[in-house]
Specification:
heterodimer, A: 211 residues, mainly alpha, 9 helices, 73% helix, B: 253 residues, elongated
């Protein structure tokens, strides 16, 4: 608890202000965007997962952190620091996302709130996991966000890849792309399973070393 | 003038020497070719792929957006990094004026973006020319390529370089990323259409239709082209204005 509190203090007020600003922007879009736009799908399956990744890349810095050497020298393992930092940032973003979902649901009622949470969690978890992985690899600032951003944009642009068999099981934005075969729950489970595998790898590699 | 040219030169060279620049260029070229390489399967799938102008048109919709996204990130810390590394104090101690510094950063970023974007198109066009299974005259590739360099690459480079250099020096870079990601997702989500496209599209707006037009819809939407051009150049230039107005950015002369 103490560590989470200190991570929240390090996080500061800026991310909270940016997230609050986003909630306001989404509320305005929900009111004025009209019925042609399915805001719940594009907002919570596509936009907010990448925003979660940006926040982890920018505020959950690991190797790019100015104090990395000092922190690494003090402990036997990096993993607890990585976990506390990443989970704190992810939870903060998710809190605001859920708030935004409630507002959008109240205004537009496009899809049920629980479903919005489900469609948000798996791409957000996947992109955030990749960002954490990049945070552990790259020492330069913004590189993690850049790498994840390119993956995110590529995934968005390559909807046509869904014509290949099995691709729809690992495609990040299955609901947004139409989900022709009704397999979105399986898709979300597969993506979360892949994330779990990556996290297991991170824990195994960084569990016993501090660099 | 010489001082301004020095700032532009160092800005340009420093950016070009970054490995990430070549990483972004390579990734966007590979991604574009994965989509539009003139292989047997792609030729069967994509109707007009044998036409060089269509290939360039398609490259502008697909890989170019990824390239501009990457370049935007690479340019976004150009002012902040001077502050962080202490270079700014060094520059401010030299007889460089605020105007020279800002223009140097902006123009250096612009020439860099224009170079990388041109290389992106040139590499794609070269691969297309070499591997297309029918005989195509070199001029058939060079004409749409040259048109794209002027009609598309120039305004897109002004937009990307100016907003990426200027805005993060005014607002938190993370807020800039968040706003930029919303703009890029709107770009990625907009389907290609023969009708008037939204004005806010970066690489795939109506300007692109001056390179290639669908034979069934051979008309040019002048309003759309003007709006797209105005958005790209206007936003780029307007975003630079607060830099000049911000007093904190420079010493008191």
């Amino acid at each position: 608890m103490k560590q989470i509190k200190s991570e929240l203090m390090i996080l500061g007020i800026n991310p909270i202000l940016i997230l609050a600003f986003l909630v306001v922007v989404f509320t305005l879009i929900a009111i004025f965007a009209g019925e042609m736009l399915n805001l719940s799908l594009i907002g919570f399956e596509v936009i907010f997962p990448f925003i979660a990744a940006i926040f982890i890349g920018e505020w959950g810095k690991i190797k790019a952190d100015d104090n990395y050497d000092m922190i690494a020298a003090q402990g036997k393992s990096l993993i607890s620091w990585v976990l506390y930092r990443s989970v704190t940032v992810f939870a903060t973003v998710t809190f605001f996302v859920v708030l935004c979902m409630a507002i959008v649901f109240h205004i537009r009622s496009e899809i049920p709130l629980q479903e919005m949470i489900l469609i948000y969690l798996s791409p957000a978890f996947m992109l955030s996991t990749l960002t954490v992985l990049c945070n552990l690899i790259f020492t330069h600032e913004h590189v993690s966000t850049l790498v994840c951003g390119m993956i995110w944009l590529l995934a968005m642009l390559s909807k046509s890849m869904l014509r290949y068999p099995m691709t729809e099981y690992i495609y990040l934005f299955i609901r947004y792309s139409g989900d022709r075969n009704g397999i979105w729950l399986i898709n979300k489970s597969v993506i979360i399973a892949i994330c779990a595998v990556i996290w297991t790898g991170i824990c195994l590699v960084y569990g016993k070393k501090n660099r | 003038m010489r001082k301004l040219l020095s700032v532009i030169y160092y800005e340009y060279v420093m950016q070009l020497k970054r490995i990430a620049t070549w990483g972004v260029l390579a990734a966007s070229v590979v991604i574009t070719l994965l989509d539009g390489f003139p292989s047997e399967k792609n030729l069967a799938r994509i109707e007009f792929l044998l036409q060089p102008s269509y290939f360039i048109y398609r490259s502008l919709s697909f890989g170019a957006l990824i390239a501009t996204f990457g370049l935007m990130f690479l340019l976004s810390n150009r002012m902040a990094i001077d502050h962080k590394t202490g270079m700014k104090q060094l520059i401010m101690a030299s007889p460089i004026t605020k105007l020279q510094y800002i223009f140097g950063k902006l123009l250096g970023g612009f020439i860099y973006t224009y170079t990388v974007f041109s290389l992106f198109l040139a590499l794609n066009t070269l691969v297309f020319y070499v591997s297309v299974p029918i005989d195509i005259a070199l001029t058939d590739c060079l004409v749409p390529f040259s048109k794209a360099l002027i009609i598309n690459v120039l305004p897109v480079s002004i937009f990307i370089s100016f907003i990426s250099v200027a805005l993060p020096a005014i607002v938190d870079v993370r807020l800039f990323y968040v706003l930029a990601s919303v703009l890029f997702i709107l770009n990625a989500a907009s389907p290609d259409s023969a009708d008037k496209m939204p004005f806010y599209l970066i690489t795939s707006g109506d300007l692109k239709k001056l390179i290639w037009q669908h034979p069934k819809f051979p008309y040019i939407n002048t309003d759309g082209i003007q709006a797209n051009l105005l958005f790209l150049i206007g936003c780029g230039l307007i975003s630079a204005v607060p830099l000049f107005l911000r007093r904190k950015l420079w010493r008191n002369d």
